[in-house]
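User: My instructor asked us to take a sequence, write out its structure as tokens, and then describe one feature of it. I'm not sure where to start. Here is the sequence I was given:
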Amino acid sequence: MKILIIRNYPSYMDVEKNTYNIQEVGLAKALVRKGNVCDIVFWTDKDEKEVAIPVDDRGKVTVFYKHGKTALKNTVYSGCDELFAQYDVLQTAEYNQMQSWILAKKYPEKHIVYHGPYYTPFNKRYNLMCTVFDLFFLNRYRKIGTHFITKSKLAQEFLGSKGIKASNVKTIGVGIDTQMLSNGKTECSEPLFLEMCKDEKVKLLYIGRFEERRNIPFIFDIFAEILKKSVNATLYMIGTGDKDYTEKCWKHATELGIRENIVYQEKMEQKYLSDVYNLADFFLLPTKYEIFGMVLLEAMYYKTVVLTTDNGGSSTLIDNGRNGYILQDENASKWANVVSEVTSEKMNAVKEAAHDTIADQYTWDKLADSFMESYKKLDDKREV
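Assistant: Let's start with the prediction itself. The structure tokens for your sequence are:
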């Protein structure tokens, strides 16, 4: 099977210098290992070029950097008809992207959409864009029976609410590329990691952007409540954000009197994060919206107890209380109770269950078969 994954966003993904878990690359490599040909189209505003990514001894993934017309976080690629014609499957991203809509009509027999977003009151701009798209464009998908793969159960429900047939939608999730998470033999000397190594307290962790969506002040509220419950703990944080929001967050931490109990580092190479996850006891992610959350996958894989909200990733990955915790309301004391009341035996059981969930079901190599099953349904469509 020849598959082309098309990332139709105007963001530059540097596969030559990348150390992060780029979803398209992880999936493409896994599909090649299964004996397929799988390549990728990424947007660029620089010179067009091709980059080969070797895949063990199974072949390679070719990344085509292409120009495209961009607007409102959409990219429509121009001059790619000859390239598109060479593949059996064309996988685009998101239902409301114009590239997805165009290919749905042009190649209905081999086009599929990998969709992640879902409805939440927090995401007002996206909701407005969807309202406009649905008014003028949605009916094409329903009329021609476009197939979708979703990243979460919430995303599947979202498409269902728009009249997309359930038989045309399959939730598979998102995987991790374990090769990108390993630091090999490189010894980590990052200051935050070294601090964790000598810390005998309960270690709480947050990794990610400092932004309103991620509810950083509430993380500080939770931590303050944990300390009030006489839990001897340290909060470790890695991430950056807009200056105004970041300063607001740190001011809140200072007002709570917890700043000195927080160890913070702005950035860390991806290859060292496995060492940090391995040392953490709890991962806090009280996010207001998460399409999936690669940090959830990573934290669970490296045996950290996750506390999070009901979001795209948690709705798919977490069996509440068994391999992590989903907490519904913004009551910091209730979040803190999970940390203060969990026994060592229960913590270890949750950590092991979390790791097993990701290792057994949510690496790209594990998910590749499910993607291929969805692609094969397009064969049935060709025969109709």
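For the description part of your assignment, you could build on this observation: The chain has a mean pLDDT of 94. Try explaining in your own words what that tells you about the chain.
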